[in-house]
Amino acid sequence: MELRIGVIGIGAMGRDHVDRINNRVNGAKVSAISDINVEVATAYAKEIGATFYEDAEALIAADEIDGIVVTSWDPTHEGYVLEAIKHDKYVFCEKPLALEASGCTNIVNAETAKQKRLVQVGFMRRYDRGYEEMKRELDTGVLGEPLLLHCTHRNETVDSKYDTPMAVENTAVHEVDALRWLLQEDFVSAQVILPKKQTQYTHPKLHDPQLILLQTESGVCIDLEVFVNCQFGYDINCKVVCEKGEIGLTNPTYFNVKTEQKDYTRVPSDWKERFISAYDKELQLWVDGIKHDEITGPSAWDGYMASVTTNACSESRDNGYKVEIKFDEKPSLYQ
Ligand code: NAP
Protein backbone atom coordinates (compact mmCIF):
# COMPACT_ATOMS: atom_id res chain seq x y z
CA MET A 1 0.00 0.00 0.00
CA GLU A 2 1.27 3.46 -0.87
CA LEU A 3 1.31 5.81 2.13
CA ARG A 4 -0.44 9.16 1.74
CA ILE A 5 1.75 11.97 3.02
CA GLY A 6 0.75 15.52 3.94
CA VAL A 7 3.44 18.23 3.79
CA ILE A 8 3.10 21.47 5.79
CA GLY A 9 5.27 24.32 4.49
CA ILE A 10 6.23 24.18 0.83
CA GLY A 11 9.24 26.48 0.67
CA ALA A 12 12.70 25.26 -0.34
CA MET A 13 12.89 22.25 1.98
CA GLY A 14 9.23 21.32 1.64
CA ARG A 15 9.41 21.17 -2.14
CA ASP A 16 12.67 19.24 -1.99
CA HIS A 17 11.00 16.62 0.24
CA VAL A 18 7.88 16.53 -1.98
CA ASP A 19 10.10 15.78 -4.97
CA ARG A 20 11.97 13.05 -3.13
CA ILE A 21 8.82 11.39 -1.72
CA ASN A 22 7.12 11.43 -5.12
CA ASN A 23 10.12 10.44 -7.21
CA ARG A 24 12.80 8.70 -5.19
CA VAL A 25 11.28 7.22 -2.03
CA ASN A 26 9.46 3.91 -2.41
CA GLY A 27 6.03 3.34 -0.94
CA ALA A 28 4.66 6.86 -0.47
CA LYS A 29 3.14 9.80 -2.36
CA VAL A 30 2.39 13.35 -1.30
CA SER A 31 -1.38 13.62 -1.40
CA ALA A 32 -1.90 16.88 0.51
CA ILE A 33 -0.06 20.10 1.26
CA SER A 34 -0.60 23.19 3.39
CA ASP A 35 1.16 26.55 3.52
CA ILE A 36 0.26 30.05 4.67
CA ASN A 37 0.75 31.35 1.11
CA VAL A 38 -2.61 30.25 -0.23
CA GLU A 39 -2.26 31.30 -3.85
CA VAL A 40 1.20 29.86 -4.40
CA ALA A 41 0.36 26.67 -2.53
CA THR A 42 -2.92 26.13 -4.41
CA ALA A 43 -1.07 26.34 -7.71
CA TYR A 44 1.67 24.03 -6.47
CA ALA A 45 -0.88 21.49 -5.19
CA LYS A 46 -2.44 21.41 -8.65
CA GLU A 47 0.98 20.95 -10.25
CA ILE A 48 1.79 17.88 -8.13
CA GLY A 49 -1.74 16.44 -8.03
CA ALA A 50 -2.26 16.96 -4.30
CA THR A 51 -5.10 18.46 -2.26
CA PHE A 52 -4.49 21.90 -0.77
CA TYR A 53 -5.57 22.44 2.85
CA GLU A 54 -5.70 26.04 3.98
CA ASP A 55 -5.94 24.79 7.54
CA ALA A 56 -2.86 22.72 8.42
CA GLU A 57 -4.61 21.23 11.45
CA ALA A 58 -7.36 19.88 9.20
CA LEU A 59 -4.67 18.26 7.05
CA ILE A 60 -3.17 16.61 10.15
CA ALA A 61 -6.57 15.33 11.30
CA ALA A 62 -7.66 14.06 7.85
CA ASP A 63 -8.37 10.30 7.74
CA GLU A 64 -6.85 10.05 4.28
CA ILE A 65 -3.40 11.15 5.54
CA ASP A 66 -1.04 8.49 6.93
CA GLY A 67 1.98 10.65 7.78
CA ILE A 68 2.87 14.32 8.15
CA VAL A 69 6.04 16.13 7.06
CA VAL A 70 6.61 19.48 8.81
CA THR A 71 8.76 21.85 6.76
CA SER A 72 7.26 25.16 7.80
CA TRP A 73 9.21 27.90 9.56
CA ASP A 74 11.06 26.85 12.77
CA PRO A 75 8.75 28.47 15.40
CA THR A 76 5.72 26.59 13.99
CA HIS A 77 7.16 23.07 14.38
CA GLU A 78 6.15 22.42 17.97
CA GLY A 79 2.44 23.14 17.43
CA TYR A 80 2.14 20.94 14.34
CA VAL A 81 4.06 18.06 15.91
CA LEU A 82 1.88 18.17 19.04
CA GLU A 83 -1.21 18.18 16.86
CA ALA A 84 0.06 15.12 14.95
CA ILE A 85 0.72 13.25 18.19
CA LYS A 86 -2.76 14.16 19.41
CA HIS A 87 -4.17 12.44 16.32
CA ASP A 88 -1.79 9.44 16.65
CA LYS A 89 -0.17 10.36 13.33
CA TYR A 90 3.43 9.69 12.41
CA VAL A 91 5.27 12.96 11.89
CA PHE A 92 8.61 13.77 10.30
CA CYS A 93 9.70 17.21 11.53
CA GLU A 94 12.53 19.22 10.07
CA LYS A 95 15.07 20.50 12.56
CA PRO A 96 14.84 22.13 15.02
CA LEU A 97 12.07 20.08 16.67
CA ALA A 98 11.29 23.23 18.69
CA LEU A 99 13.32 26.37 19.21
CA GLU A 100 13.23 26.10 23.01
CA ALA A 101 14.04 22.94 24.96
CA SER A 102 10.75 23.47 26.85
CA GLY A 103 8.89 23.07 23.53
CA CYS A 104 10.73 19.78 22.91
CA THR A 105 9.83 18.68 26.44
CA ASN A 106 6.15 19.25 25.59
CA ILE A 107 6.59 16.95 22.59
CA VAL A 108 8.53 14.32 24.57
CA ASN A 109 5.79 14.36 27.24
CA ALA A 110 3.00 14.02 24.66
CA GLU A 111 4.80 11.12 22.99
CA THR A 112 5.70 9.30 26.19
CA ALA A 113 2.06 9.62 27.31
CA LYS A 114 1.19 7.55 24.21
CA GLN A 115 4.09 5.16 24.95
CA LYS A 116 4.82 5.04 21.23
CA ARG A 117 7.36 6.76 19.01
CA LEU A 118 5.52 8.86 16.44
CA VAL A 119 8.16 11.54 15.81
CA GLN A 120 11.27 11.52 13.63
CA VAL A 121 13.47 14.63 13.46
CA GLY A 122 15.24 15.66 10.25
CA PHE A 123 18.81 15.20 11.44
CA MET A 124 19.89 13.74 8.10
CA ARG A 125 23.63 13.89 8.68
CA ARG A 126 23.39 10.56 10.47
CA TYR A 127 22.65 9.08 7.02
CA ASP A 128 25.44 10.82 5.14
CA ARG A 129 27.96 8.29 3.89
CA GLY A 130 30.93 10.34 5.09
CA TYR A 131 29.63 10.59 8.67
CA GLU A 132 28.53 6.93 8.63
CA GLU A 133 31.96 5.73 7.53
CA MET A 134 33.74 8.01 10.00
CA LYS A 135 31.61 6.60 12.81
CA ARG A 136 32.30 3.01 11.73
CA GLU A 137 36.04 3.70 11.75
CA LEU A 138 35.97 5.48 15.12
CA ASP A 139 33.90 2.67 16.64
CA THR A 140 36.60 0.11 15.74
CA GLY A 141 38.89 1.87 18.23
CA VAL A 142 41.87 1.61 15.85
CA LEU A 143 42.51 5.35 16.10
CA GLY A 144 42.27 5.36 19.89
CA GLU A 145 40.10 7.78 21.85
CA PRO A 146 38.80 10.97 20.19
CA LEU A 147 40.37 14.05 21.82
CA LEU A 148 39.51 17.11 19.72
CA LEU A 149 37.12 17.93 16.88
CA HIS A 150 37.55 20.78 14.41
CA CYS A 151 34.39 21.48 12.44
CA THR A 152 33.12 24.06 9.98
CA HIS A 153 29.62 24.80 8.73
CA ARG A 154 29.85 27.28 5.88
CA ASN A 155 27.14 28.51 3.54
CA GLU A 156 27.85 30.53 0.44
CA THR A 157 25.34 33.24 1.43
CA VAL A 158 22.12 33.59 3.43
CA ASP A 159 19.12 35.89 2.93
CA SER A 160 18.18 38.94 5.00
CA LYS A 161 15.76 36.90 7.18
CA TYR A 162 18.73 35.00 8.62
CA ASP A 163 19.90 36.63 11.86
CA THR A 164 22.51 36.05 14.58
CA PRO A 165 20.52 33.49 16.68
CA MET A 166 19.88 31.37 13.56
CA ALA A 167 23.58 30.56 13.28
CA VAL A 168 23.08 28.43 16.38
CA GLU A 169 19.42 27.37 16.26
CA ASN A 170 19.09 26.73 12.55
CA THR A 171 22.62 25.95 11.41
CA ALA A 172 24.85 24.61 14.22
CA VAL A 173 21.97 22.41 15.41
CA HIS A 174 23.04 19.95 12.68
CA GLU A 175 26.52 19.56 14.14
CA VAL A 176 25.11 19.46 17.67
CA ASP A 177 23.12 16.35 16.78
CA ALA A 178 25.61 14.73 14.40
CA LEU A 179 28.54 15.06 16.81
CA ARG A 180 26.55 13.76 19.78
CA TRP A 181 25.62 10.75 17.60
CA LEU A 182 29.18 10.35 16.26
CA LEU A 183 30.78 10.35 19.71
CA GLN A 184 27.84 8.71 21.53
CA GLU A 185 28.19 11.29 24.27
CA ASP A 186 26.19 14.21 25.57
CA PHE A 187 27.56 17.74 25.93
CA VAL A 188 28.30 19.32 29.30
CA SER A 189 29.22 22.88 28.34
CA ALA A 190 28.82 25.40 25.54
CA GLN A 191 30.37 28.72 24.68
CA VAL A 192 29.89 31.05 21.72
CA ILE A 193 32.48 33.60 20.68
CA LEU A 194 31.52 36.46 18.37
CA PRO A 195 34.75 37.57 16.72
CA LYS A 196 35.21 41.33 16.56
CA LYS A 197 36.23 41.06 12.93
CA GLN A 198 33.26 40.25 10.69
CA THR A 199 32.87 39.64 6.99
CA GLN A 200 31.88 42.63 4.84
CA TYR A 201 29.22 40.37 3.24
CA THR A 202 27.01 40.20 6.34
CA HIS A 203 24.14 42.53 7.29
CA PRO A 204 23.33 44.45 10.50
CA LYS A 205 21.20 41.68 12.07
CA LEU A 206 23.76 38.92 11.55
CA HIS A 207 27.08 38.47 13.32
CA ASP A 208 29.16 36.41 10.88
CA PRO A 209 31.26 34.31 11.47
CA GLN A 210 30.71 32.79 14.93
CA LEU A 211 32.78 30.28 16.87
CA ILE A 212 31.13 27.62 19.04
CA LEU A 213 33.00 25.60 21.65
CA LEU A 214 31.46 22.43 23.11
CA GLN A 215 32.74 19.92 25.60
CA THR A 216 31.44 16.35 26.06
CA GLU A 217 30.96 14.34 29.25
CA SER A 218 34.33 12.58 28.82
CA GLY A 219 36.12 15.86 28.05
CA VAL A 220 36.33 15.83 24.24
CA CYS A 221 36.65 19.47 23.08
CA ILE A 222 34.97 20.67 19.88
CA ASP A 223 35.41 23.90 17.96
CA LEU A 224 32.79 24.69 15.34
CA GLU A 225 33.04 27.61 12.94
CA VAL A 226 29.70 28.81 11.60
CA PHE A 227 30.32 31.11 8.65
CA VAL A 228 27.23 31.61 6.51
CA ASN A 229 28.45 34.17 3.99
CA CYS A 230 31.72 32.45 3.07
CA GLN A 231 31.14 33.23 -0.66
CA PHE A 232 32.72 30.07 -2.06
CA GLY A 233 30.11 27.32 -1.50
CA TYR A 234 28.52 25.00 1.05
CA ASP A 235 31.47 23.59 2.95
CA ILE A 236 31.01 21.08 5.75
CA ASN A 237 34.09 19.78 7.53
CA CYS A 238 34.52 17.56 10.55
CA LYS A 239 37.97 16.46 11.63
CA VAL A 240 38.38 14.17 14.65
CA VAL A 241 41.82 14.14 16.27
CA CYS A 242 42.35 10.86 18.12
CA GLU A 243 45.17 9.38 20.22
CA LYS A 244 46.66 7.44 17.29
CA GLY A 245 45.46 9.31 14.23
CA GLU A 246 43.00 11.66 12.65
CA ILE A 247 39.86 11.14 10.57
CA GLY A 248 37.90 13.73 8.61
CA LEU A 249 35.09 14.26 6.12
CA THR A 250 35.78 15.11 2.50
CA ASN A 251 33.32 16.87 0.22
CA PRO A 252 31.79 14.20 -2.05
CA THR A 253 33.29 14.67 -5.46
CA TYR A 254 33.20 12.82 -8.77
CA PHE A 255 35.84 14.66 -10.75
CA ASN A 256 38.76 17.02 -10.39
CA VAL A 257 40.11 19.64 -12.78
CA LYS A 258 43.73 20.23 -13.71
CA THR A 259 44.48 23.40 -15.61
CA GLU A 260 46.97 26.30 -15.64
CA GLN A 261 49.18 24.77 -12.94
CA LYS A 262 46.14 24.17 -10.68
CA ASP A 263 44.45 20.96 -9.52
CA TYR A 264 41.01 21.40 -7.93
CA THR A 265 37.67 19.81 -7.09
CA ARG A 266 34.22 21.40 -6.78
CA VAL A 267 32.66 22.60 -3.53
CA PRO A 268 28.88 21.89 -3.43
CA SER A 269 26.63 24.93 -3.87
CA ASP A 270 24.17 24.18 -1.10
CA TRP A 271 22.75 21.66 1.38
CA LYS A 272 20.43 20.12 -1.21
CA GLU A 273 23.37 19.04 -3.31
CA ARG A 274 25.74 18.11 -0.47
CA PHE A 275 23.30 15.91 1.46
CA ILE A 276 20.96 14.66 -1.27
CA SER A 277 21.59 10.96 -0.56
CA ALA A 278 21.26 11.47 3.20
CA TYR A 279 17.85 13.18 2.79
CA ASP A 280 16.67 10.35 0.51
CA LYS A 281 17.80 7.77 3.03
CA GLU A 282 16.22 9.45 6.08
CA LEU A 283 12.82 9.74 4.38
CA GLN A 284 12.93 6.17 3.03
CA LEU A 285 13.69 5.01 6.56
CA TRP A 286 10.76 7.07 7.89
CA VAL A 287 8.32 5.63 5.30
CA ASP A 288 9.54 2.08 6.01
CA GLY A 289 9.20 2.81 9.74
CA ILE A 290 5.55 3.81 9.33
CA LYS A 291 4.87 0.62 7.35
CA HIS A 292 6.47 -1.52 10.08
CA ASP A 293 4.86 0.58 12.81
CA GLU A 294 8.31 1.27 14.29
CA ILE A 295 10.16 4.58 13.94
CA THR A 296 13.91 4.23 14.42
CA GLY A 297 15.32 7.55 13.11
CA PRO A 298 16.37 10.53 15.27
CA SER A 299 13.83 10.84 18.07
CA ALA A 300 12.01 13.60 19.93
CA TRP A 301 14.58 12.98 22.67
CA ASP A 302 17.38 13.74 20.19
CA GLY A 303 15.47 16.90 19.24
CA TYR A 304 15.27 17.83 22.93
CA MET A 305 18.99 17.21 23.53
CA ALA A 306 19.85 19.36 20.51
CA SER A 307 17.66 22.23 21.72
CA VAL A 308 19.05 22.07 25.26
CA THR A 309 22.49 22.47 23.72
CA THR A 310 21.59 25.24 21.29
CA ASN A 311 19.75 27.10 24.08
CA ALA A 312 22.98 26.93 26.13
CA CYS A 313 24.90 28.28 23.13
CA SER A 314 22.43 31.19 22.85
CA GLU A 315 22.75 31.98 26.55
CA SER A 316 26.53 32.02 26.20
CA ARG A 317 26.40 34.24 23.11
CA ASP A 318 24.11 36.75 24.80
CA ASN A 319 25.98 36.86 28.12
CA GLY A 320 29.58 36.17 27.17
CA TYR A 321 30.21 33.29 29.58
CA LYS A 322 30.55 29.52 29.26
CA VAL A 323 27.27 27.72 30.05
CA GLU A 324 26.95 24.39 31.81
CA ILE A 325 24.44 22.12 30.03
CA LYS A 326 21.83 20.36 32.16
CA PHE A 327 19.19 17.97 30.86
CA ASP A 328 16.27 15.88 32.13
CA GLU A 329 16.43 12.16 32.71
CA LYS A 330 15.87 10.18 29.52
CA PRO A 331 12.42 8.52 29.46
CA SER A 332 12.41 4.73 28.97
CA LEU A 333 10.66 5.13 25.57
CA TYR A 334 13.98 6.42 24.17
CA GLN A 335 16.37 4.00 25.88
P1 NAP B 1 11.21 28.50 3.54
O1 NAP B 1 11.74 28.39 2.15
O2 NAP B 1 10.98 29.85 4.14
O3 NAP B 1 9.84 27.66 3.58
C1 NAP B 1 8.98 27.61 4.67
C2 NAP B 1 7.56 27.68 4.14
O4 NAP B 1 6.63 27.50 5.22
C3 NAP B 1 7.25 29.05 3.52
O5 NAP B 1 6.43 28.89 2.38
C4 NAP B 1 6.53 29.74 4.65
O6 NAP B 1 5.76 30.85 4.25
C5 NAP B 1 5.71 28.58 5.17
N1 NAP B 1 5.16 28.79 6.49
C6 NAP B 1 5.57 29.65 7.45
N2 NAP B 1 4.80 29.54 8.54
C7 NAP B 1 3.86 28.59 8.26
C8 NAP B 1 2.79 28.05 8.99
N3 NAP B 1 2.48 28.46 10.23
N4 NAP B 1 2.04 27.06 8.42
C9 NAP B 1 2.33 26.65 7.16
N5 NAP B 1 3.34 27.15 6.41
C10 NAP B 1 4.09 28.12 6.96
O7 NAP B 1 12.15 27.72 4.54
P2 NAP B 1 12.98 26.38 4.25
O8 NAP B 1 14.38 26.71 3.95
O9 NAP B 1 12.20 25.50 3.33
O10 NAP B 1 12.97 25.75 5.72
C11 NAP B 1 11.83 25.08 6.20
C12 NAP B 1 12.25 24.23 7.41
O11 NAP B 1 13.18 23.26 6.98
C13 NAP B 1 12.94 25.04 8.51
O12 NAP B 1 12.51 24.57 9.75
C14 NAP B 1 14.41 24.75 8.31
O13 NAP B 1 15.11 24.78 9.53
C15 NAP B 1 14.36 23.34 7.74
N6 NAP B 1 15.52 23.08 6.86
C16 NAP B 1 16.24 21.96 7.07
C17 NAP B 1 17.33 21.69 6.29
C18 NAP B 1 18.14 20.45 6.55
O14 NAP B 1 19.27 20.40 6.11
N7 NAP B 1 17.62 19.46 7.23
C19 NAP B 1 17.69 22.55 5.26
C20 NAP B 1 16.91 23.68 5.04
C21 NAP B 1 15.82 23.93 5.83
P3 NAP B 1 6.47 32.32 4.30
O15 NAP B 1 7.61 32.27 3.34
O16 NAP B 1 5.39 33.25 3.86
O17 NAP B 1 6.90 32.55 5.72
Note the main attributes of this structure.
single chain; alpha/beta; Dihydrodipicolinate Reductase, domain 2; seven-stranded mixed β-sheet; six-stranded parallel β-sheet; 15 strands; 37% helix; 23% strand; globular; binds NADP nicotinamide-adenine-dinucleotide phosphate; nucleotide binding
CATH domain fold name of the largest domain? Rossmann fold
- In whole angstroms, how far apart are the ends? 31 Å
Q: In total, how many domains does the architecture comprise? A: 2
The H-level CATH homologous superfamily of the largest domain, spelled out, is NAD(P)-binding Rossmann-like Domain
> What proportion of the residues form beta strands (DSSP E)?
15-25%
Largest beta-sheet characterization: 7 strands, mixed
Spatial arrangement of strands, main beta sheet: 12-11-7-10-9-8-15
Shape by Cα distribution: globular
| Backbone CA Rg | 20 Å
